[in-house]
Specification:
This is Acyl-CoA dehydrogenase. By secondary structure, the chain is an alpha+beta fold. Among the domains are: 19-135, Butyryl-Coa Dehydrogenase, subunit A, domain 1, CATH 1.10.540; 138-241, Butyryl-CoA Dehydrogenase, subunit A, domain 2, CATH 2.40.110; 435-551, no CATH class. It is built from 21 helices and ten strands. It has helices at 19-35, 37-45, 51-60, 62-67, 83-96, 98-115, 120-131, 242-255, 258-280, 292-320, 329-355, 366-372, 383-391, 394-399, 437-441, 447-465, 470-473, 476-502, 506-529, 535-543, 552-563, and strands at 136-139, 155-158, 164-174, 181-188, 197-202, 209-214, 222-232, 237-240, 282-283, 286-287. A hairpin with a 2-residue loop joins strand 9 (282-283) and strand 10.
Length: 573
Protein backbone atom coordinates (compact mmCIF):
# COMPACT_ATOMS: atom_id res chain seq x y z
CA UNK A 1 0.00 0.00 0.00
CA UNK A 2 1.23 3.51 -0.81
CA UNK A 3 0.90 6.04 2.01
CA UNK A 4 -0.47 9.26 0.47
CA UNK A 5 1.26 11.33 3.17
CA UNK A 6 4.80 10.19 2.35
CA UNK A 7 6.86 10.78 -0.77
CA UNK A 8 7.02 7.60 -2.86
CA UNK A 9 9.37 7.77 -5.87
CA UNK A 10 7.68 5.09 -7.95
CA UNK A 11 4.26 6.73 -7.72
CA UNK A 12 5.20 10.38 -7.45
CA UNK A 13 3.08 12.76 -9.50
CA UNK A 14 2.80 16.33 -8.13
CA UNK A 15 -0.50 16.92 -9.89
CA UNK A 16 -1.06 20.16 -7.96
CA UNK A 17 1.82 21.82 -9.87
CA UNK A 18 2.06 23.06 -13.46
CA UNK A 19 3.25 20.82 -16.28
CA UNK A 20 6.85 22.06 -16.45
CA UNK A 21 7.34 21.77 -12.69
CA UNK A 22 5.88 18.26 -12.72
CA UNK A 23 8.14 17.23 -15.58
CA UNK A 24 11.31 18.52 -13.91
CA UNK A 25 10.50 17.03 -10.53
CA UNK A 26 9.63 13.70 -12.09
CA UNK A 27 12.81 13.81 -14.19
CA UNK A 28 14.84 14.37 -11.02
CA UNK A 29 13.27 11.36 -9.32
CA UNK A 30 13.79 9.23 -12.43
CA UNK A 31 17.44 10.26 -12.67
CA UNK A 32 18.16 9.07 -9.13
CA UNK A 33 16.13 5.89 -9.50
CA UNK A 34 17.74 4.91 -12.80
CA UNK A 35 21.18 5.67 -11.36
CA UNK A 36 20.33 3.24 -8.59
CA UNK A 37 21.04 2.60 -4.93
CA UNK A 38 24.48 1.09 -5.44
CA UNK A 39 25.76 4.23 -7.13
CA UNK A 40 24.07 6.36 -4.46
CA UNK A 41 25.73 4.61 -1.52
CA UNK A 42 29.08 4.10 -3.26
CA UNK A 43 29.46 7.75 -4.20
CA UNK A 44 28.60 8.74 -0.62
CA UNK A 45 30.96 6.20 0.95
CA UNK A 46 33.79 7.16 -1.40
CA UNK A 47 33.09 10.88 -0.97
CA UNK A 48 32.80 11.44 -4.71
CA UNK A 49 31.87 14.93 -5.82
CA UNK A 50 28.39 14.83 -7.36
CA UNK A 51 29.41 16.10 -10.79
CA UNK A 52 26.95 13.71 -12.46
CA UNK A 53 24.02 15.27 -10.61
CA UNK A 54 25.16 18.78 -11.48
CA UNK A 55 25.48 17.73 -15.13
CA UNK A 56 21.91 16.39 -15.04
CA UNK A 57 20.61 19.60 -13.41
CA UNK A 58 22.41 21.71 -16.01
CA UNK A 59 21.09 19.64 -18.93
CA UNK A 60 17.50 19.89 -17.67
CA UNK A 61 17.78 23.58 -16.70
CA UNK A 62 16.55 22.55 -13.26
CA UNK A 63 18.11 25.28 -11.13
CA UNK A 64 17.65 27.93 -13.82
CA UNK A 65 13.91 27.20 -14.02
CA UNK A 66 13.29 26.96 -10.28
CA UNK A 67 15.61 29.72 -9.03
CA UNK A 68 15.24 32.57 -11.53
CA UNK A 69 12.59 35.11 -10.48
CA UNK A 70 10.09 36.09 -13.12
CA UNK A 71 11.58 39.59 -13.31
CA UNK A 72 14.86 38.09 -14.55
CA UNK A 73 13.38 35.31 -16.67
CA UNK A 74 13.21 37.11 -20.02
CA UNK A 75 10.56 35.46 -22.16
CA UNK A 76 10.54 32.14 -20.30
CA UNK A 77 7.12 31.74 -18.65
CA UNK A 78 8.26 28.72 -16.61
CA UNK A 79 10.95 30.53 -14.63
CA UNK A 80 9.88 31.92 -11.29
CA UNK A 81 10.70 31.74 -7.57
CA UNK A 82 7.91 29.48 -6.36
CA UNK A 83 8.30 28.35 -2.76
CA UNK A 84 5.83 25.47 -3.19
CA UNK A 85 7.76 23.77 -5.96
CA UNK A 86 11.12 24.67 -4.41
CA UNK A 87 10.00 22.87 -1.26
CA UNK A 88 9.01 19.84 -3.32
CA UNK A 89 12.44 19.68 -4.97
CA UNK A 90 14.17 20.16 -1.63
CA UNK A 91 12.30 17.18 -0.17
CA UNK A 92 13.21 15.00 -3.16
CA UNK A 93 16.88 15.90 -2.96
CA UNK A 94 16.94 15.22 0.79
CA UNK A 95 15.31 11.85 0.13
CA UNK A 96 18.30 10.80 -1.99
CA UNK A 97 21.05 12.41 0.04
CA UNK A 98 22.12 15.53 1.88
CA UNK A 99 24.88 16.33 -0.60
CA UNK A 100 22.46 16.73 -3.51
CA UNK A 101 20.24 18.93 -1.40
CA UNK A 102 23.21 20.91 -0.12
CA UNK A 103 24.47 22.06 -3.52
CA UNK A 104 20.92 23.23 -4.33
CA UNK A 105 20.53 24.88 -0.94
CA UNK A 106 23.78 26.82 -1.18
CA UNK A 107 22.82 28.00 -4.66
CA UNK A 108 19.59 29.36 -3.15
CA UNK A 109 21.60 31.27 -0.56
CA UNK A 110 24.13 32.58 -3.06
CA UNK A 111 21.34 34.01 -5.19
CA UNK A 112 19.59 35.73 -2.28
CA UNK A 113 21.73 38.89 -2.21
CA UNK A 114 21.66 39.07 -6.01
CA UNK A 115 17.89 38.92 -6.41
CA UNK A 116 17.52 41.51 -3.62
CA UNK A 117 19.91 43.86 -5.42
CA UNK A 118 19.07 46.69 -7.79
CA UNK A 119 22.25 45.91 -9.73
CA UNK A 120 20.77 44.91 -13.10
CA UNK A 121 24.13 43.83 -14.53
CA UNK A 122 24.75 41.43 -11.65
CA UNK A 123 21.22 40.07 -11.91
CA UNK A 124 21.60 39.45 -15.62
CA UNK A 125 24.96 37.74 -15.02
CA UNK A 126 23.41 35.45 -12.37
CA UNK A 127 20.52 34.53 -14.67
CA UNK A 128 22.95 33.74 -17.49
CA UNK A 129 25.12 31.61 -15.21
CA UNK A 130 22.08 29.62 -14.13
CA UNK A 131 21.19 29.05 -17.77
CA UNK A 132 24.71 27.72 -18.31
CA UNK A 133 24.24 25.25 -15.46
CA UNK A 134 26.37 26.91 -12.80
CA UNK A 135 25.79 26.70 -9.06
CA UNK A 136 26.28 29.58 -6.61
CA UNK A 137 27.77 30.14 -3.14
CA UNK A 138 27.07 32.34 -0.13
CA UNK A 139 30.28 33.84 1.29
CA UNK A 140 29.16 34.98 4.71
CA UNK A 141 30.80 33.08 7.57
CA UNK A 142 34.42 33.32 8.66
CA UNK A 143 36.50 30.93 10.71
CA UNK A 144 37.06 33.18 13.75
CA UNK A 145 33.48 34.47 13.91
CA UNK A 146 31.18 31.89 12.33
CA UNK A 147 28.09 33.66 10.99
CA UNK A 148 28.59 36.70 13.28
CA UNK A 149 28.47 39.23 10.48
CA UNK A 150 29.05 42.14 12.87
CA UNK A 151 32.65 40.93 13.12
CA UNK A 152 33.58 40.28 9.50
CA UNK A 153 37.29 40.63 8.78
CA UNK A 154 37.13 40.55 4.98
CA UNK A 155 38.19 44.07 4.01
CA UNK A 156 37.55 46.10 0.89
CA UNK A 157 39.94 48.94 0.09
CA UNK A 158 38.83 51.55 -2.49
CA UNK A 159 40.83 51.60 -5.71
CA UNK A 160 41.34 54.30 -8.32
CA UNK A 161 38.69 52.93 -10.68
CA UNK A 162 35.64 53.38 -8.45
CA UNK A 163 35.78 49.84 -7.15
CA UNK A 164 37.62 47.99 -4.40
CA UNK A 165 40.32 45.44 -3.72
CA UNK A 166 39.08 42.71 -1.38
CA UNK A 167 41.32 40.70 0.91
CA UNK A 168 40.28 38.15 3.51
CA UNK A 169 39.02 34.65 4.06
CA UNK A 170 35.66 32.91 4.20
CA UNK A 171 35.02 29.58 5.88
CA UNK A 172 32.37 26.87 5.60
CA UNK A 173 31.20 28.01 2.18
CA UNK A 174 29.36 25.33 0.22
CA UNK A 175 29.95 25.15 -3.54
CA UNK A 176 32.94 27.43 -3.06
CA UNK A 177 35.02 25.14 -5.25
CA UNK A 178 32.94 25.58 -8.42
CA UNK A 179 30.50 28.48 -7.94
CA UNK A 180 30.06 30.71 -10.95
CA UNK A 181 29.00 33.46 -8.58
CA UNK A 182 29.84 33.83 -4.90
CA UNK A 183 27.91 36.46 -2.96
CA UNK A 184 30.56 37.73 -0.52
CA UNK A 185 29.98 39.85 2.58
CA UNK A 186 32.71 42.21 3.79
CA UNK A 187 33.34 45.70 5.08
CA UNK A 188 35.17 48.73 3.82
CA UNK A 189 38.54 49.40 5.41
CA UNK A 190 37.92 53.17 5.31
CA UNK A 191 34.39 53.31 6.77
CA UNK A 192 33.43 52.44 10.35
CA UNK A 193 30.17 50.89 11.49
CA UNK A 194 27.19 49.60 9.49
CA UNK A 195 27.77 52.09 6.66
CA UNK A 196 30.90 50.16 5.77
CA UNK A 197 29.22 46.84 4.97
CA UNK A 198 29.41 45.59 1.36
CA UNK A 199 27.94 42.60 -0.46
CA UNK A 200 29.60 41.85 -3.78
CA UNK A 201 29.67 39.15 -6.44
CA UNK A 202 32.90 37.17 -6.89
CA UNK A 203 33.87 34.37 -9.30
CA UNK A 204 35.57 31.24 -7.95
CA UNK A 205 37.47 30.92 -11.24
CA UNK A 206 39.29 34.25 -10.82
CA UNK A 207 43.06 34.00 -10.14
CA UNK A 208 42.72 36.18 -7.02
CA UNK A 209 40.21 33.71 -5.56
CA UNK A 210 42.25 31.04 -3.79
CA UNK A 211 40.54 27.81 -2.79
CA UNK A 212 42.20 26.59 0.40
CA UNK A 213 40.51 23.26 1.18
CA UNK A 214 37.37 21.30 1.88
CA UNK A 215 36.71 21.71 5.60
CA UNK A 216 34.42 18.68 5.98
CA UNK A 217 34.99 14.96 5.56
CA UNK A 218 32.10 14.33 3.21
CA UNK A 219 30.88 13.97 -0.36
CA UNK A 220 29.95 17.65 -0.49
CA UNK A 221 32.50 20.43 -0.81
CA UNK A 222 32.34 22.98 1.99
CA UNK A 223 35.18 25.31 1.23
CA UNK A 224 37.59 27.61 2.88
CA UNK A 225 38.66 30.27 0.40
CA UNK A 226 40.70 33.46 0.45
CA UNK A 227 40.54 36.56 -1.67
CA UNK A 228 43.95 38.13 -2.23
CA UNK A 229 43.65 41.66 -3.56
CA UNK A 230 40.55 40.56 -5.49
CA UNK A 231 39.30 43.27 -7.89
CA UNK A 232 35.71 44.25 -7.07
CA UNK A 233 34.35 46.38 -9.89
CA UNK A 234 31.51 48.82 -9.39
CA UNK A 235 29.26 46.45 -11.35
CA UNK A 236 30.07 43.65 -8.89
CA UNK A 237 28.69 45.52 -5.86
CA UNK A 238 25.29 44.17 -4.79
CA UNK A 239 24.59 46.13 -1.59
CA UNK A 240 26.32 48.70 0.60
CA UNK A 241 25.78 49.92 4.15
CA UNK A 242 22.88 48.66 6.28
CA UNK A 243 21.23 47.25 3.15
CA UNK A 244 24.07 44.71 2.93
CA UNK A 245 23.37 43.61 6.49
CA UNK A 246 19.65 43.31 5.75
CA UNK A 247 20.38 41.31 2.60
CA UNK A 248 22.35 38.79 4.64
CA UNK A 249 19.55 38.21 7.15
CA UNK A 250 16.78 38.26 4.55
CA UNK A 251 18.67 35.71 2.46
CA UNK A 252 18.71 33.42 5.47
CA UNK A 253 14.95 33.95 5.83
CA UNK A 254 14.45 32.71 2.28
CA UNK A 255 17.07 29.98 2.11
CA UNK A 256 17.09 28.33 5.48
CA UNK A 257 13.45 27.34 5.14
CA UNK A 258 14.75 24.49 2.98
CA UNK A 259 16.28 22.81 6.02
CA UNK A 260 12.88 21.45 7.04
CA UNK A 261 12.14 19.78 3.73
CA UNK A 262 15.60 18.22 3.57
CA UNK A 263 14.98 16.72 7.00
CA UNK A 264 11.59 15.39 5.87
CA UNK A 265 13.06 13.74 2.78
CA UNK A 266 15.85 12.07 4.75
CA UNK A 267 13.37 10.73 7.31
CA UNK A 268 10.99 9.39 4.67
CA UNK A 269 13.66 7.29 2.95
CA UNK A 270 15.00 6.07 6.28
CA UNK A 271 11.51 5.12 7.44
CA UNK A 272 10.79 2.94 4.42
CA UNK A 273 14.08 1.14 4.96
CA UNK A 274 13.73 0.78 8.74
CA UNK A 275 10.11 -0.45 8.79
CA UNK A 276 10.83 -2.96 6.03
CA UNK A 277 13.86 -4.33 7.86
CA UNK A 278 12.08 -4.54 11.22
CA UNK A 279 8.90 -6.16 9.91
CA UNK A 280 10.75 -8.80 7.92
CA UNK A 281 13.14 -9.74 10.74
CA UNK A 282 12.40 -12.63 13.11
CA UNK A 283 13.87 -12.61 16.63
CA UNK A 284 13.10 -15.15 19.34
CA UNK A 285 10.47 -16.67 17.08
CA UNK A 286 8.57 -13.41 16.63
CA UNK A 287 8.53 -10.59 14.13
CA UNK A 288 10.43 -7.62 15.50
CA UNK A 289 7.31 -5.52 14.89
CA UNK A 290 5.31 -7.76 17.22
CA UNK A 291 7.17 -6.38 20.24
CA UNK A 292 5.11 -3.62 21.94
CA UNK A 293 8.04 -1.25 22.43
CA UNK A 294 8.95 -1.54 18.74
CA UNK A 295 5.40 -0.71 17.69
CA UNK A 296 5.40 2.31 19.97
CA UNK A 297 8.73 3.58 18.64
CA UNK A 298 7.77 3.13 15.00
CA UNK A 299 4.34 4.66 15.54
CA UNK A 300 5.90 7.65 17.29
CA UNK A 301 8.43 8.03 14.48
CA UNK A 302 5.69 7.97 11.86
CA UNK A 303 3.50 10.46 13.74
CA UNK A 304 6.44 12.82 14.23
CA UNK A 305 7.30 12.63 10.54
CA UNK A 306 3.74 13.39 9.45
CA UNK A 307 3.67 16.33 11.88
CA UNK A 308 6.89 17.65 10.31
CA UNK A 309 5.25 17.56 6.89
CA UNK A 310 2.02 19.17 8.05
CA UNK A 311 3.81 22.09 9.72
CA UNK A 312 6.21 22.67 6.82
CA UNK A 313 3.53 22.50 4.15
CA UNK A 314 1.43 25.05 6.00
CA UNK A 315 4.44 27.32 6.56
CA UNK A 316 4.85 27.46 2.76
CA UNK A 317 1.45 29.14 2.54
CA UNK A 318 2.52 31.90 4.94
CA UNK A 319 5.75 32.50 3.02
CA UNK A 320 3.88 32.79 -0.27
CA UNK A 321 1.19 35.06 1.16
CA UNK A 322 3.61 37.37 2.96
CA UNK A 323 3.82 41.10 2.39
CA UNK A 324 4.82 44.30 4.18
CA UNK A 325 1.74 44.03 6.40
CA UNK A 326 1.97 40.29 7.04
CA UNK A 327 5.35 39.05 8.20
CA UNK A 328 4.16 36.08 10.23
CA UNK A 329 6.51 33.92 8.16
CA UNK A 330 9.39 35.34 10.19
CA UNK A 331 8.24 33.22 13.14
CA UNK A 332 7.45 30.14 11.11
CA UNK A 333 10.87 30.25 9.42
CA UNK A 334 12.97 29.71 12.58
CA UNK A 335 10.37 27.13 13.59
CA UNK A 336 11.13 25.13 10.46
CA UNK A 337 14.87 25.58 10.99
CA UNK A 338 14.77 24.56 14.66
CA UNK A 339 11.67 22.54 15.45
CA UNK A 340 11.19 20.52 12.27
CA UNK A 341 14.88 19.62 12.01
CA UNK A 342 15.18 18.53 15.64
CA UNK A 343 12.04 16.45 15.17
CA UNK A 344 13.88 14.83 12.28
CA UNK A 345 16.64 13.82 14.68
CA UNK A 346 14.04 12.26 16.96
CA UNK A 347 12.54 10.29 14.07
CA UNK A 348 15.92 8.85 13.11
CA UNK A 349 16.74 8.04 16.75
CA UNK A 350 13.46 6.16 17.16
CA UNK A 351 14.02 4.19 13.97
CA UNK A 352 17.63 3.48 14.93
CA UNK A 353 16.58 2.13 18.32
CA UNK A 354 14.51 -0.42 16.41
CA UNK A 355 16.94 -1.48 13.69
CA UNK A 356 20.05 -1.19 15.90
CA UNK A 357 23.20 -2.51 14.20
CA UNK A 358 21.55 -2.42 10.78
CA UNK A 359 21.78 1.34 10.96
CA UNK A 360 25.57 1.20 10.73
CA UNK A 361 25.79 -0.87 7.55
CA UNK A 362 27.53 0.90 4.69
CA UNK A 363 25.20 -0.39 1.97
CA UNK A 364 22.09 1.13 3.56
CA UNK A 365 20.61 4.57 3.11
CA UNK A 366 19.99 4.67 6.86
CA UNK A 367 23.70 4.82 7.62
CA UNK A 368 23.84 8.11 5.68
CA UNK A 369 20.62 9.44 7.18
CA UNK A 370 21.86 8.86 10.73
CA UNK A 371 24.97 10.92 10.05
CA UNK A 372 23.44 13.69 7.97
CA UNK A 373 20.27 14.38 9.96
CA UNK A 374 22.45 15.84 12.73
CA UNK A 375 23.72 18.65 10.55
CA UNK A 376 20.43 20.29 9.67
CA UNK A 377 19.60 21.87 13.06
CA UNK A 378 23.14 23.23 13.16
CA UNK A 379 23.37 24.96 9.77
CA UNK A 380 23.40 28.80 9.79
CA UNK A 381 22.03 29.22 13.27
CA UNK A 382 21.96 26.57 15.96
CA UNK A 383 18.87 25.43 17.82
CA UNK A 384 19.75 27.92 20.55
CA UNK A 385 19.99 30.86 18.13
CA UNK A 386 16.66 30.04 16.53
CA UNK A 387 14.94 29.51 19.87
CA UNK A 388 16.16 32.90 21.05
CA UNK A 389 14.72 34.38 17.85
CA UNK A 390 11.40 32.59 18.36
CA UNK A 391 11.08 34.11 21.83
CA UNK A 392 10.90 37.61 20.31
CA UNK A 393 7.48 36.76 18.91
CA UNK A 394 6.00 35.22 22.07
CA UNK A 395 4.25 38.23 23.69
CA UNK A 396 2.30 39.27 20.60
CA UNK A 397 1.58 35.72 19.53
CA UNK A 398 0.13 34.60 22.86
CA UNK A 399 -1.49 37.76 24.18
CA UNK A 400 -2.20 40.28 21.39
CA UNK A 401 -3.88 38.58 18.42
CA UNK A 402 -4.84 40.68 15.44
CA UNK A 403 -7.21 40.18 12.54
CA UNK A 404 -5.68 38.79 9.34
CA UNK A 405 -7.39 37.56 6.17
CA UNK A 406 -7.41 33.75 5.96
CA UNK A 407 -4.30 32.30 4.30
CA UNK A 408 -5.29 29.70 1.69
CA UNK A 409 -3.29 26.74 0.46
CA UNK A 410 -0.74 28.23 -1.96
CA UNK A 411 0.22 25.82 -4.72
CA UNK A 412 -0.52 28.22 -7.56
CA UNK A 413 2.24 28.95 -10.13
CA UNK A 414 3.05 32.43 -8.79
CA UNK A 415 6.35 34.25 -8.39
CA UNK A 416 7.09 34.91 -4.71
CA UNK A 417 8.69 38.25 -5.41
CA UNK A 418 8.11 39.73 -1.94
CA UNK A 419 10.83 37.47 -0.55
CA UNK A 420 13.37 39.68 -2.36
CA UNK A 421 11.98 42.96 -1.05
CA UNK A 422 11.51 42.11 2.61
CA UNK A 423 12.96 45.44 3.73
CA UNK A 424 14.90 46.14 6.92
CA UNK A 425 15.52 43.10 9.09
CA UNK A 426 14.09 44.53 12.29
CA UNK A 427 10.83 45.08 14.12
CA UNK A 428 10.20 41.41 14.87
CA UNK A 429 8.62 42.17 18.21
CA UNK A 430 5.95 44.28 16.52
CA UNK A 431 4.65 41.53 14.21
CA UNK A 432 1.07 40.55 15.02
CA UNK A 433 -0.52 37.12 14.59
CA UNK A 434 -4.03 35.80 14.22
CA UNK A 435 -5.55 34.12 17.27
CA UNK A 436 -3.80 30.79 17.76
CA UNK A 437 -6.74 29.49 19.77
CA UNK A 438 -8.99 29.27 16.71
CA UNK A 439 -7.15 26.27 15.27
CA UNK A 440 -7.32 24.49 18.63
CA UNK A 441 -11.01 25.31 19.07
CA UNK A 442 -11.80 23.74 15.69
CA UNK A 443 -10.37 20.41 16.87
CA UNK A 444 -11.38 20.49 20.53
CA UNK A 445 -13.37 17.27 20.04
CA UNK A 446 -10.12 15.30 19.77
CA UNK A 447 -9.07 14.21 23.26
CA UNK A 448 -5.36 14.94 22.97
CA UNK A 449 -5.86 18.25 21.20
CA UNK A 450 -8.07 19.26 24.14
CA UNK A 451 -5.48 18.05 26.63
CA UNK A 452 -2.66 19.91 24.89
CA UNK A 453 -4.84 23.02 24.80
CA UNK A 454 -4.98 22.85 28.61
CA UNK A 455 -1.20 22.94 28.67
CA UNK A 456 -1.03 25.80 26.16
CA UNK A 457 -3.50 27.85 28.18
CA UNK A 458 -1.36 27.04 31.21
CA UNK A 459 1.67 28.57 29.50
CA UNK A 460 -0.18 31.84 28.98
CA UNK A 461 -1.21 31.76 32.66
CA UNK A 462 2.41 31.18 33.71
CA UNK A 463 3.66 34.14 31.66
CA UNK A 464 0.85 36.39 32.91
CA UNK A 465 1.27 35.56 36.61
CA UNK A 466 4.93 34.53 36.92
CA UNK A 467 6.74 36.04 33.94
CA UNK A 468 10.55 35.71 33.90
CA UNK A 469 12.11 38.41 36.06
CA UNK A 470 15.06 40.55 35.00
CA UNK A 471 17.65 37.97 36.05
CA UNK A 472 15.80 35.12 34.33
CA UNK A 473 15.57 37.19 31.13
CA UNK A 474 19.37 37.27 31.08
CA UNK A 475 19.58 33.52 31.75
CA UNK A 476 19.44 31.95 28.30
CA UNK A 477 19.46 28.44 29.76
CA UNK A 478 16.18 29.19 31.52
CA UNK A 479 14.64 31.08 28.61
CA UNK A 480 15.38 28.36 26.09
CA UNK A 481 13.15 25.93 27.97
CA UNK A 482 10.36 28.51 27.99
CA UNK A 483 11.02 28.86 24.27
CA UNK A 484 10.57 25.13 23.75
CA UNK A 485 7.19 25.25 25.49
CA UNK A 486 6.12 28.18 23.33
CA UNK A 487 7.38 26.52 20.16
CA UNK A 488 5.12 23.54 20.81
CA UNK A 489 2.07 25.82 20.79
CA UNK A 490 3.09 27.33 17.46
CA UNK A 491 3.89 23.88 16.07
CA UNK A 492 0.51 22.55 17.07
CA UNK A 493 -1.32 25.50 15.53
CA UNK A 494 0.03 25.03 12.01
CA UNK A 495 -0.34 21.25 12.23
CA UNK A 496 -4.02 21.75 13.03
CA UNK A 497 -4.50 24.29 10.25
CA UNK A 498 -2.96 21.94 7.67
CA UNK A 499 -4.92 18.99 9.02
CA UNK A 500 -8.13 20.98 8.48
CA UNK A 501 -7.15 21.99 4.95
CA UNK A 502 -6.18 18.45 3.92
CA UNK A 503 -8.82 16.44 5.80
CA UNK A 504 -6.22 14.52 7.79
CA UNK A 505 -7.41 11.33 9.44
CA UNK A 506 -8.61 12.14 12.98
CA UNK A 507 -6.87 9.08 14.49
CA UNK A 508 -3.52 10.22 13.16
CA UNK A 509 -4.04 13.82 14.26
CA UNK A 510 -4.93 12.73 17.79
CA UNK A 511 -1.86 10.45 17.82
CA UNK A 512 0.31 13.45 16.89
CA UNK A 513 -1.10 15.41 19.81
CA UNK A 514 -0.47 12.44 22.08
CA UNK A 515 3.19 13.19 21.32
CA UNK A 516 2.84 16.92 21.88
CA UNK A 517 1.25 16.36 25.29
CA UNK A 518 4.21 14.18 26.26
CA UNK A 519 6.70 16.68 24.86
CA UNK A 520 5.14 19.58 26.76
CA UNK A 521 5.30 17.57 29.98
CA UNK A 522 8.96 16.79 29.34
CA UNK A 523 9.87 20.46 28.89
CA UNK A 524 7.77 21.41 31.92
CA UNK A 525 9.78 18.86 33.92
CA UNK A 526 12.97 20.43 32.58
CA UNK A 527 11.75 23.88 33.65
CA UNK A 528 10.97 22.52 37.11
CA UNK A 529 14.59 21.44 37.51
CA UNK A 530 16.27 24.67 36.40
CA UNK A 531 18.31 26.44 39.03
CA UNK A 532 16.77 29.77 38.05
CA UNK A 533 13.15 28.59 38.35
CA UNK A 534 11.21 30.15 41.22
CA UNK A 535 9.05 28.14 43.59
CA UNK A 536 5.89 29.48 41.93
CA UNK A 537 7.16 28.58 38.47
CA UNK A 538 8.20 25.12 39.66
CA UNK A 539 4.76 24.55 41.14
CA UNK A 540 3.22 25.58 37.81
CA UNK A 541 5.45 23.09 35.99
CA UNK A 542 4.30 20.19 38.15
CA UNK A 543 0.67 21.26 37.85
CA UNK A 544 0.86 21.14 34.05
CA UNK A 545 2.27 17.69 33.59
CA UNK A 546 -0.28 15.68 31.67
CA UNK A 547 -0.63 12.13 30.46
CA UNK A 548 -2.01 11.83 26.94
CA UNK A 549 -5.44 10.27 26.50
CA UNK A 550 -4.76 6.62 25.70
CA UNK A 551 -6.89 4.92 23.08
CA UNK A 552 -5.57 1.48 22.17
CA UNK A 553 -7.93 1.13 19.20
CA UNK A 554 -6.82 4.49 17.78
CA UNK A 555 -3.15 3.60 18.14
CA UNK A 556 -3.77 0.20 16.55
CA UNK A 557 -5.36 1.87 13.54
CA UNK A 558 -2.40 4.21 13.15
CA UNK A 559 -0.07 1.22 13.48
CA UNK A 560 -1.69 -0.31 10.41
CA UNK A 561 -0.53 2.72 8.43
CA UNK A 562 3.00 2.20 9.73
CA UNK A 563 3.31 -1.53 9.11
CA UNK A 564 1.96 -1.04 5.57
CA UNK A 565 5.25 0.75 4.79
CA UNK A 566 7.07 -2.59 4.97
CA UNK A 567 8.16 -3.44 1.44
CA UNK A 568 6.30 -0.43 0.04
CA UNK A 569 9.46 1.11 -1.44
CA UNK A 570 12.93 -0.10 -2.26
CA UNK A 571 15.27 2.03 -4.33
CA UNK A 572 16.24 0.50 -7.66
CA UNK A 573 19.54 -1.39 -7.28
Amino acid sequence: MTDPLLFHPHRYDPAHLDETSRRLLRATVDWFESRGKQALVDSYNHQEWYADFLAFAAKEGLFATFLTPAADAGDDPDKRWDTARNAALSEILGFYGLGYWYTWQVTVLGLGPVWQSGNTAARARAAALLDEGHVMAFGLSERPHGADIYSTDLLLTPDADGGFRATGGKYYIGNGNVAGLVSVFGRRADVEGPEGYVFFAADSRHPAYRLVRNVVNAQMYVSEFRLENYPVRAEDVLHTGPAAFDAALNTVNVGKFNLCTASIGICEHAMYEAVTHAHQRILYGRRVTDFPHVRRELTDAYARLVAMKLFSDRAVDYFRSAGPDDRRYLLFNPMTKMKVTTEGEKVIDLLWDVIAAKGFEADTYFDKAAKDIRGLPKLEGTVHVNLALILKFMPNYLFRPAAHPPVPTRQDPADDEFLFRQGPARGLGAIRFHDWRAAYDAHAHLPNVARFREQADGLTALLAAHAPDEAQQRDLDFLLTVGQLFALVVYGQLILEQAELTGLDADLLDEIFDLLVRDFSAYATDLHGKAATTEAQAAWALAHLRRPVVDADRTARVWQRVVALSGAYEMHP
